[in-house]
Prior knowledge:
Layout: H1 2-23, H2 32-67, H3 71-91, H4 110-124, H5 130-150, H6 158-179, H7 195-246
Helix pairs in contact: 2-3, 2-4, 4-5, 4-6, 5-7, 6-7
Amino acid sequence: MADNASQSDQIIxxxxxxxxxxxxxxxxxxxxxxxxxxxxxxxxKLIRMVAAVFVLWMVLGVIGSIINGIGFTGLVLGALATFAxxxxxxxxxxxxxxxxxxxxxxxxxxxTMVGKTELWLESQRRALPPPAVKLVDTIGLQLxxxxxxxxxxxxxxxxxxxxxxxxxxxxxxxxxxxxxxxxHLRYEDSAGGSPNVRFMSGLSTISGEIDSxxxxxxxxxxxxxxxxxxxxxxxxxxxxxxxxxSA
Length: 247
């Protein structure tokens, strides 16, 4: 029975992932946490671009008022300066991919830490075997859900502390340790199986633990919903039945 339930969960997760890929036109979607951080970085770039262009033309306006106009040459120079400012602020600063040392479990905002881990996972995909890439992609989607849940959780909540250890230490440590093994040794059997087998087993364990944490964090909301539903049935269901009988 437990095996059937586990297989059902895997099928559901795979279906959800396939649906997201289809919605993206057959392309793989980056995890939401990573996309959220990229959008934030792009938003800050746009603000800097707008501010730079605004200041530039304010300065040109002041100069024009002092010298009684900037003339055609000034307009051309202003346009070139605007183009240069937009190009420079659009290209720099580039978003830095988090390094292993940046994934600090003690970071105050656990949701930000989850997003950084997603970005770091994105950068590790090419160095992993295809089966591991699929599992890492699944973990990325799981982290999306977990990250949204953590937005409503106290940063000092025991589950938040557990997530920090799992996502900021254990998961990156597992992948980094695997990558330190020379490729030709990853397939050699030793006690307990090859490094590849143990690595996949470790990823599966982490995926299962993230799923467990997600369910635990949702348990309270599920219970509250059940209580609210029972209360509504008790308060209004009887009234509806009485109204039906009187009619």
